Amino acid sequence: IRCWSNIPFITVPLSRAHGKSFAHRSELKHAKRIVVKLGSAVVTRGDECGLALGRLASIVEQVSMLQNQGREMMIVTSGAVAFGKQRLRHEILLSQSVRQALHSGQSQLKDMAIPVLEARACAAAGQSGLMALYEAMFTQYSICAAQILVTNLDFHDEQKRRNLNGTLHELLRMNIVPIINTNDAVVPPPEPNSDLQGVNVISVKDNDSLAARLAVEMKTDLLIVLSDVEGLFDSPPGSDDAKLIDIFYPGDQQSVTFGTKSRVGMGGMEAKVKAALWALQGGTSVVIANGTHPKISGHVITDIVEGKKVGTFFSEVKPAGPTVEQQAEMARAGGRTLAALQPEQRAEIIYRLADLLTDQRENILLANKKDLQDAENKGRLALPLLKRLSLSTSKLNSLAIGLRQIAASSRDSVGRVIRRTRIAKDLDLEQVTVPIGVLLVIFESRPDCLPQVSALAIASGNGLLLKGGKEAAHSNQILHHLTQEALSIHGVRDAVQLVNTREEVEDLCRLDKLIDLIIPRGSSQLVRDIQKAAKGIPVMGHSEGICHVYVDTDASVEKVTRIIRDSKCEYPAACNALETLLIHRDLLRTPLFDQIIDMLRVEQVKIHAGPKFASYLTFSPSEVKSLRTEYGDLECCIEVVDSVQEAVEHVHKYGSSHTDVIITENEKTAEFFLQHVDSACVFWNASTRFSDGYRFGLGAEVGISTSRIHARGPVGIEGLLTTKWLLRGDNHVVSDFSEHGSMKYLHESLPLPQRNAS
């Protein structure tokens, strides 16, 4: 790590043989030489007179960060005409006001008309000021900038091309950022139809073509074209059904309808696409993105280089399968067809999946063995994660039993009437259950999660996108194949999709128009990252599982050690495992307390002492660093409380609203704990490990939610449903219910239809 000025930065090793563009966004982080093209709409203000200084400063900061990482940055900039227009307008106004004041002898000025300013004159007046501004901004990051003005003729003259190439290479060698622009003060009109005749011929008629020509000449790895739109759309932005194209391939031009050009500048999107494809043909990767949006312009360049899904990426390599956007659309269409099936048909699909899990047991375990071997060879997974990754015959049998439970309980889920109201005569209202839509479930090291979640989505009629960890790739692949085989019996194979592309989780969380709910299954860090990254999509889940067991003074000796052992030691990596053991102060130095400690030692549980517990001991275990710790292993914290009220307060202060337990024989004390602890699951004389969809009789769960809206606790079929209102009338209008209207509201509750007893 080096530090220039007051900005720390990391020097990254970058080396790449030029000649072929990057195939995937994730490879863009390896780009060493980068050209950033700033369109007129990015550099200029909305009134087209003057520069957008805040936006420009942000761009300079990002370019400086990348330059200080060891990359070679070049900027192709517009803005000279706008800056010059501002200066010339100011001069003209000043000159006119002085002449008018001298001529009339009056201080009051009349309205003054500003003549139309010629673009070449504006460019001449603005170039020096624009460059001075860039120099001042780059100086803040201890970076030197140099100006180069070019015209189309400079590229057609072989000697000038060599001179330009040599100058740019020398500037880059000296860690200087070249600022390149067309010399608009002398540039001739562009020759029509003279560009894009081959890799070596493109006329410089605007800064798009200049940037493309420069990128190929300098063997640049990446060209970033910033404009005032998010990227390339399949139809003009703002039109109905216009969709942003994530990846654009040569030959796709026929599927795109171009609109008008931006408010300023020489070229529109069609010119940008032509220039981008020309650069791509020359071996340079291209991304077209929005450089004006206030929420993303501050990090758009660095996001692109980091491989995030920003703008439109131009690639010559078409993926073998559908894009994640196409998969989401397929899941939505498949989910709607699934929801329209009869309940018995959805149940048949789940029964078939349960049968396949047992019939294909050997193939599933063989695939899982490959994942386990890969994980052990790479040594990247901790022991708790390896346990989660592992499948066994007993796990598959339990999965099949759980799926059959889901199938049996799913017959009356979608379309169930939960409220009926007679609004008025012949006007009846119903509230019925419907699927949420498209679910995105992201899970780590848990291949058994795939059939569980798939069955719940099928039962509730939801489309499903699954993103599993690469450590379980073989297991996930075969389990997804079996899921689609089961779905095929009723022609809804596409309802469940497994994302196999190189999509980053953060990019998936931005698909707010395609995904209705995100459900993370994994570490607390994964859940926090997804909650932070989700843009406009609700996230169901819990970031931590800090579960407590409180041992009261009236606790049964026989029950205490059994419940604590099961809560902590049965599966310590689970989110519903005990993490903090609260002991009533009166139990210290009693045989019961000694039994608890001895049992934990026998089970090799590492004990951390809470502050109050440590104060009672002469030689205490290591004092806990935080009372809000989820260990996920054979470790736990022990803390002392003076009463059940203090235990409740401790749970509220340090818990995660997941699962909390009281062990006592005093019913009054137990009821106080059950009623006052504000967690998703609160138990009396039972292990924390019962907090599970299968053990609750839900068949399985998509996760455990600690949120207070919609679903809470283990989430089964009911948590994946929402409602809609159906109103059946006969020529009813609101005006009939006015003060002098002919109808009156009844609002009578009607009996619900009988549910299917089977």
From TrEMBL:
<comment type="function">
    <text>Bifunctional enzyme that converts glutamate to glutamate 5-semialdehyde, an intermediate in the biosynthesis of proline, ornithine and arginine.</text>
</comment>
<dbReference type="InterPro" id="IPR016161">
    <property type="entry name" value="Ald_DH/histidinol_DH"/>
</dbReference>
<dbReference type="Pfam" id="PF00171">
    <property type="entry name" value="Aldedh"/>
</dbReference>
<comment type="similarity">
    <text>In the C-terminal section; belongs to the gamma-glutamyl phosphate reductase family.</text>
</comment>
<protein>
    <recommendedName>
        <fullName>Delta-1-pyrroline-5-carboxylate synthase</fullName>
        <ecNumber>1.2.1.41</ecNumber>
        <ecNumber>2.7.2.11</ecNumber>
    </recommendedName>
</protein>
<keyword id="KW-0028">Amino-acid biosynthesis</keyword>
<keyword id="KW-0067">ATP-binding</keyword>
<dbReference type="InterPro" id="IPR016163">
    <property type="entry name" value="Ald_DH_C"/>
</dbReference>
<dbReference type="InterPro" id="IPR015590">
    <property type="entry name" value="Aldehyde_DH_dom"/>
</dbReference>
<comment type="subunit">
    <text>Can form homodimers/multimers.</text>
</comment>
<dbReference type="Pfam" id="PF00696">
    <property type="entry name" value="AA_kinase"/>
</dbReference>
<comment type="similarity">
    <text>In the N-terminal section; belongs to the glutamate 5-kinase family.</text>
</comment>
<comment type="pathway">
    <text>Amino-acid biosynthesis; L-proline biosynthesis; L-glutamate 5-semialdehyde from L-glutamate: step 1/2.</text>
</comment>
<dbReference type="InterPro" id="IPR016162">
    <property type="entry name" value="Ald_DH_N"/>
</dbReference>
<keyword id="KW-0808">Transferase</keyword>
<comment type="pathway">
    <text>Amino-acid biosynthesis; L-proline biosynthesis; L-glutamate 5-semialdehyde from L-glutamate: step 2/2.</text>
</comment>
<dbReference type="InterPro" id="IPR041744">
    <property type="entry name" value="G5K_ProBA"/>
</dbReference>
<feature type="domain" description="Aspartate/glutamate/uridylate kinase">
    <location>
        <begin position="32"/>
        <end position="290"/>
    </location>
</feature>
<keyword id="KW-0560">Oxidoreductase</keyword>
<dbReference type="GO" id="GO:0004349">
    <property type="term" value="F:glutamate 5-kinase activity"/>
</dbReference>
<dbReference type="InterPro" id="IPR001057">
    <property type="entry name" value="Glu/AcGlu_kinase"/>
</dbReference>
<dbReference type="GO" id="GO:0004350">
    <property type="term" value="F:glutamate-5-semialdehyde dehydrogenase activity"/>
</dbReference>
<dbReference type="InterPro" id="IPR001048">
    <property type="entry name" value="Asp/Glu/Uridylate_kinase"/>
</dbReference>
<dbReference type="GO" id="GO:0005524">
    <property type="term" value="F:ATP binding"/>
</dbReference>
<dbReference type="GO" id="GO:0055129">
    <property type="term" value="P:L-proline biosynthetic process"/>
</dbReference>
<dbReference type="GO" id="GO:0005759">
    <property type="term" value="C:mitochondrial matrix"/>
</dbReference>
<keyword id="KW-0418">Kinase</keyword>
<keyword id="KW-0496">Mitochondrion</keyword>
<keyword id="KW-0547">Nucleotide-binding</keyword>
<dbReference type="InterPro" id="IPR000965">
    <property type="entry name" value="GPR_dom"/>
</dbReference>
<dbReference type="InterPro" id="IPR019797">
    <property type="entry name" value="Glutamate_5-kinase_CS"/>
</dbReference>
<feature type="domain" description="Aldehyde dehydrogenase">
    <location>
        <begin position="323"/>
        <end position="588"/>
    </location>
</feature>
<dbReference type="InterPro" id="IPR005766">
    <property type="entry name" value="P5_carboxy_syn"/>
</dbReference>
<keyword id="KW-0521">NADP</keyword>
<dbReference type="InterPro" id="IPR005715">
    <property type="entry name" value="Glu_5kinase/COase_Synthase"/>
</dbReference>
<dbReference type="InterPro" id="IPR036393">
    <property type="entry name" value="AceGlu_kinase-like_sf"/>
</dbReference>
<keyword id="KW-0511">Multifunctional enzyme</keyword>
<keyword id="KW-0641">Proline biosynthesis</keyword>
